[in-house]
Amino acid sequence: MSYLENVRKLLEYHGEVRREVYLDLENSAPVPSEVLNEMLPYFNSRAYGNPTLTHKQGWEAYEAIMEAADTIAKSIGASPEELCFTSGEAEANNTAILGSLLDKKGKIVTSAIDPLTILLPLEILKRRGFEIVRVSVDSEGFIDLDEFSKAIDKDTVLVSTSIVNNEIGTIQPFKEIVEIAKDKNPDVIVHMDASDAYGRVMFSVRELNIDLLTLSSYKIMGPRGVAALYVRNGIRVERIIEGPVGTQRLWPGVENTPLIVGFKKASQLAFERFEENVNHMKKLRDMLIKELLSIEDTLINGPLGDKRAPDNVNISFLHCEGESLTIELSFRGVYVSSGSACTRRILQPSHVLIAIGREYEAAHGSILMKVSRYHSVDDIEYVIESFKPAVERIRSISPMGRK
Amino acid sequence: MSRSPLPYSQKILELFRNPKNLGRMEDATVSASAGNPACGDIISFYLKIDENMVITKASFESYGCAANIATASMLTEMVKGKTLEEAWKISWKDVANEVGGLPSVKFHCGVLAVGALRRAIREFFKKRGFKPNWLPEEDTFEEKQALEEEELAKVLSRRVIPGD
């Protein structure tokens, strides 16, 4: 059977569900209508030209891209020339890391829980002779600042870490991290992935005194396939992909104007009513956490309260394999992901959960969810209602934890 | 190859939703639990064996993904009515074929099911205090891939992120 026939049969068997709530915002996101409507004209009725070319459609595209850069740059306290659009967070992180170090040698400091879009490009550099230090974290995912401070010395060329951890929502003491790094070595380049902070945790690149920063579009409910890398004026970063360069100095290719416009719209919506959005997310987050923790043998992963990202929920259901639970929930129209080894092609449980000291069983039964301003209390109630029987069913299959 | 196969098929989802022979067997002649060092999944296998060494009933429990549940369920069906020798000869590839094929990332699920079954069969003869000619001295590949829970925890706790 071909791959296509296989997936068609699988979907046919899955069938439609009476209600759907999508909480797998870590891995992808639906584009809200208000964002999509903003994007649509840019596909075929305006600004569809190449922004480097000398005609009206090109100039309109140039204008749209500059407007987007302006809006997004302002939201982080940067100037538009410092912002480069890329085709996603992986590309932005890779450009930040590989592009700033091509002719250097020395030590790079990161943490044990950074996303693989940081840790894996660092592996490339390790093979080329760089020393990589992964600073450990505590049981809630906070970076050990003493260890971090000790890791920075005259040989350190780059710090690359995140403001908010994407899996367990830990909001790092990011100001201190930058301060310590710059204090111990003023020449060190500091990069942070802000994909899970942007639109949810306030920061300004000027106040932070940071050099490189990654912003995600889909994580603020913009379209996928677009992200941005902030490069502070004066910091040298080279392209890691070569080709004809248009309006983005670090990214060769024809700019995807509709996606960039969608990113801008999502950013406007996130910041227009920032407080209101964040409070809404926190309310839904805390509802989910409280109700799901009332199920027996559960653990919260990451901190609680104000040091947790407003949108992040990560709970381990012991004696319950996570991938099975995601499938069981899918039949109920609830879409989530798991840090179980089973869900990964590399067959390893989430490195984040292992780094915070979770036993393999806790990682195996972990479920990651994110809420957004588009979710309602009703949606969350439906999710809670669906979880209980789903967990019960998967546990009933398991020989673990029999009472 | 530029594309990866989907880890799942309709057949596996069907068996996941409606597994056959699920649950602990209180009057089992023999049982075995085994964990997979590749991913941490654990399955328990229960066999009811008659005086002619024919498997009259088999059941399972799984702490694993849908492919694990599906392959274990399929294997309990495949061994029913078979002699222990016939059951021993079932390979993980046979199980994978019966569930309509497994992609490479899920091969270990079939291996674990067969490993647990073989551990149960070996346990049966150990209890009886004799070893038939067809039973190999050395653990087979499938059995080696089916660890006891304690060994499993040790292997998995050494895991860190790629590159370490």
Describe this structure in words.
The complex is a heterodimer of chains A (403) and B (164). Chain A is of the alpha/beta class. Chain A has 2 domains: 3-30 and 274-397, Aspartate Aminotransferase, domain 1, CATH 3.90.1150.10; 35-271, Type I PLP-dependent aspartate aminotransferase-like (Major domain) (Aspartate Aminotransferase, domain 2). Chain A contains 15 helices and 13 strands. Chain A has helices spanning 3-14, 33-39, 41-44, 56-75, 89-99, 116-127, 145-151, 174-184, 205-208, 257-272, 274-293, 322-331, 351-355, 360-364, 377-397, and strands spanning 21-22, 83-86, 107-111, 131-135, 156-162, 189-193, 212-216, 227-231, 298-300, 312-317, 334-335, 337-338, 366-370. Chain A has a 7-stranded mixed sheet with strand order 2-8-7-6-5-3-4, with helices on both faces. A 4-stranded antiparallel sheet of chain A has the order 9-10-13-12. Chain A has a two-stranded parallel ribbon with strand order 1-11. The model of chain A has no long low-confidence stretch (mean pLDDT 95). Helix content of chain B is 42%, strand content 14%. Chain B is built from 7 helices and 3 strands. Chain B has a 3-stranded antiparallel sheet, with helices on one face. The longest helix of chain B has 22 residues, at 107-128. Chain B has 164 residues and is an alpha+beta fold. The two termini of chain B are 27 Å apart. In chain B, helix 1 crosses helix 2 (66-79), helix 2 (66-79) packs across helix 5 (107-128) and helix 4 (92-98) packs across helix 5 (107-128). Chain B has a single domain, classed as Sufe protein. Chain: A. Classes of the chains: A alpha/beta (403), B alpha+beta (164). The A-B interface holds A 1, 3, 6-7, 9-10, 12-14, 112, 116, 119-120, 123, 126, 319-321, 323-324, 327, 331, 340-343, 345-349, 351, 354, 359-361, 364, 397-400, 402 and B 3-6, 8-10, 13-14, 16-17, 19, 22, 24, 33, 38-44, 61-69, 100-101, 105, 108, 153, 156-157, 159-163.
Helicity level of chain B: 40-55%
**What is the typical, i.e. mean, pLDDT of chain B?**
86
Largest interface, with counts of residues having CB < 8 Å to the other chain, equals:
A-B, 42 and 43 residues
CATH class of chain B reads Alpha Beta
